[in-house]
């Protein structure tokens, strides 16, 4: 996935499991093997409503899980609205570093608390990590962001103001049309994203005008890279 995402059309829902396990073991979540996301009464999560979702990354933001390859398949989409949104977090971060170096430094050095509270499942996940994560060489390694998951930063008082300024500016970048790809994902289509690089979201939709049923599945990104490495080097090891 050169640009961090890929779009597939005419995908057979009955073969989703086969597609993912062809890459590696499926990563289980609180939903089980696959997550069925649609608007329901008494929603356990904002994703199960018709409200808009700002660009965010899943799971590894607020849980100790590996970077993920995320697949989002539309089983049904005949409601008004609900366009999908993708944002290349790496591109945003690279520009942000050039245009706001001090803010960039703040977001790489100050970790904050991300949380997810599930009343129905009786889980309260809490993880502390920086929004922009660098590797041991100081290179960009991952973006971890979810505005609805960081309502309590858990910061010392002297760090709150500088972090707030950096956070708000970075969030503004993420919402900018300059970086946003918006499209309608139709029934039978699937988009796969590198979760630690590409943020995803959706426009609001009206459940009264029809259904929007998304099926989500995950595989550790490491398995994707390992499979790609195998294809690249298998001839060497056969000799």
Brief rundown of the structure:
The protein is α+β, with helices and mostly antiparallel strands.
Total beta-strand segments: 15
> End-to-end distance, in Å?
28 Å
Overall geometric form:
globular
Helix content: 25-40%
State the major sheet: 5 strands, antiparallel
Number of helices: 5
Order of helices and strands: EHEEEEEHHEEEEHEEEEEH
The whole-angstrom Rg is: 18 Å
**Unreliably modeled segments:** none
β-strand amount: 25-35%
The class by helix and strand makeup works out as alpha+beta
Walk across the major sheet and give the strand order. 1-12-4-15-2
User: Overall pLDDT, averaged?
Assistant: 94
Record keyword descriptors for this entry.
alpha+beta, 15 strands, four-stranded antiparallel sheet, 239 residues, five-stranded antiparallel sheet, 31% strand, 26% helix
């Amino acid at each position: 996935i050169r640009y961090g995402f890929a779009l597939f059309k005419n995908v057979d829902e009955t073969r989703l499991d086969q597609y993912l396990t062809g890459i590696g073991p499926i990563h289980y979540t609180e939903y089980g093997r696959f997550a069925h996301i649609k608007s329901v009464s008494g929603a356990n999560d904002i994703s199960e409503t018709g409200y808009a979702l700002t660009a965010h990354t899943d799971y590894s933001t607020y849980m100790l899980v590996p970077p993920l390859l995320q697949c989002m398949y539309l089983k049904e989409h005949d409601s008004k609205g609900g366009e999908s949104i993708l944002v290349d977090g790496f591109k945003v971060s690279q520009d942000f570093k050039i245009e706001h170096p001090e803010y960039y430094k703040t977001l790489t050095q100050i970790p904050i608390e991300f949380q997810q509270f599930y009343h129905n499942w009786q889980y309260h996940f809490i993880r502390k990590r920086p929004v922009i994560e660098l590797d041991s060489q100081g290179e960009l390694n991952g973006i971890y962001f979810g505005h609805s998951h960081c309502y309590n930063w858990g910061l010392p008082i002297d760090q709150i103001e500088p972090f707030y300024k950096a956070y708000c500016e970075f969030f503004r970048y993420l919402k900018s049309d300059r970086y946003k790809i918006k499209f309608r994902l139709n029934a039978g289509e699937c988009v796969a994203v590198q979760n630690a690089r590409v943020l995803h979201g959706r426009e609001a939709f009206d459940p009264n005008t029809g259904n929007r049923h998304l099926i989500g599945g995950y595989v550790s990104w490491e398995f994707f890279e390992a499979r790609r490495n195998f294809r690249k080097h298998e001839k060497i090891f056969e000799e």
